[in-house]
UniProtKB/TrEMBL annotation:
Protein name in UniProt: ATP synthase gamma chain
PANTHER family in UniProt: ATP SYNTHASE GAMMA CHAIN, ATP SYNTHASE SUBUNIT GAMMA, MITOCHONDRIAL
Lineage: Bacteria, Pseudomonadati, Bacteroidota, Flavobacteriia, Flavobacteriales
Organism: Capnocytophaga felis
Name of encoding gene: atpG
The organism's place on the tree of life at top rank: Bacteria
Membrane topology annotation: Peripheral membrane protein
Coiled coil: none
Amino acid sequence: MQITGAMKMVSAAKLKKAQDAILAMKPYAYKLKQLLEQLSSALGNESVYNERSEGAKNVLIVPITSNRGLCGAFNSNIIKKVVELETEVYKNLNVRFYTIGKKGNDVLKKTEKIYKHETHIFDNLNFAAVSELASELMELYASGQFDKIVLVYNSFKNAATQIVTEETFLPIQSVETDKEQSSVDYLYEPSKEEIVKELIPRSLKIQIFKALRDSVASEHGARMTAMHKATDNANELRSQLKLTYNKARQAAITGEILEIVGGAEALS
């Protein structure tokens, strides 16, 4: 109980920092993604990251789990969602996994469909490390090795609630526009080519960074909740054992008293 109580306190302290980071980042990430989708619709086929006309044949699923356990259903929910995508949604396609986090890799490697795994990115989660990961995924799509890349991670809502999220990383999803919006003539500064070269990669890197930060905050929330329940269960078990011990002790004392009284009566 003392160990789980200490782990709960540690997770609560880490959660505050992770929660502040993701809540500060989400509005920027969402707005940038919305801008990216609108830009993708306007650019048409000028970006290598847009959807291909021949459709998807090779799919890369990127499950984001933790390196450590003792966090309830945090990891198992992600694995369950990944298996569902593989066996139901993309069952007729060639599916591979790029696992981020030790727990997901330990389970999914049994499928022998692991393309690559990454476990050290959480040791020092920063934008530079995430940029390298995002650039690698973007290159896998741009080179034609994969036709679709999907992120699966826990989105942070609050300390007690994490939402399993499936998000298409590539190709960029174009938004549906009505006639009035589609007739808008966009002005590109400095140029359309520069925007394709600079803004789209930056937006995709931010999307990955947000997903990883979401997962970290969700992990601390899930672990804090799990350790809180474990502490309560241990406290309840201790109370039950204490009651059982007292009953057994009382029965033993009563038995000894009866023996003494019986012996005294026999002597008299």
